[in-house]
Amino acid sequence: MEMTLLRHPSAWLPIGMSLAGLALVAGHAAVYRIVHEADEGAAAHIFQLLMAGQLPILGYFAVRWLPQAPGQAARVMALQAVAVGAALASVYWLT
Question: What's the CA gap between 27 and 15, in Å, rounded?
Fold first, then answer.
């Protein structure tokens, strides 16, 4: 399976942002343990910015590549969805 679309920043940047969010949550849980705080900290705000910052990039990717290469673009978008799901699942289970 050749994934040449993964070479474009609009394909790998959202995946990287999701993985950074996952690492942020896991690192925060490892350092500070799992405590329920009344106020969100900086890590939570950075995570939210990473997740929200992906939306325009994902939209651009869909508009740019789905008409030209629908099969490859759908596979890349599925990979992006898995990365987002992993980041969100880490928040659900670790906090």
Answer: 18
